[in-house]
Amino acid sequence: MSCPICRQPGVPQYRPFCSRRCADIDLGRWLKGSYAIPTEEDESWNETPTGASAPQED
């Protein structure tokens, strides 16, 4: 299996990556949200149901 970052052959110690550097690059991408899956959010989830009133602050 090749490294998903640089395409070199993977090393069992860092599988599926070839080195710690590539593993750290991948982790950084996860932490920054680069691998987020774009979605179309349904705005209706935030609406109050018909007949219900929103909580009132005193």
Automatic annotation (TrEMBL):
GO terms for molecular function: DNA topoisomerase type II (double strand cut, ATP-hydrolyzing) inhibitor activity; zinc ion binding. InterPro entries: DNA_gyrase_inhibitor_YacG (IPR005584), Znf_NHR/GATA (IPR013088). It holds the Pfam family YacG. Residues 46-58 have a biased composition (Polar residues). GO terms for biological process: regulation of DNA-templated transcription. Keywords: Metal-binding, Zinc. The keyword Disulfide bond does not apply. Residues 36-58 are annotated as: Disordered. Zn(2+) binds at C3, C6, C18, C22. SUPFAM superfamilies: Glucocorticoid receptor-like (DNA-binding domain). Binds 1 zinc ion. Its cofactor is Zn(2+). Inhibits all the catalytic activities of DNA gyrase by preventing its interaction with DNA. Acts by binding directly to the C-terminal domain of GyrB, which probably disrupts DNA binding by the gyrase. Interacts with GyrB. Belongs to the DNA gyrase inhibitor YacG family. This is DNA gyrase inhibitor YacG. It comes from Palleronia caenipelagi. The gene is yacG.
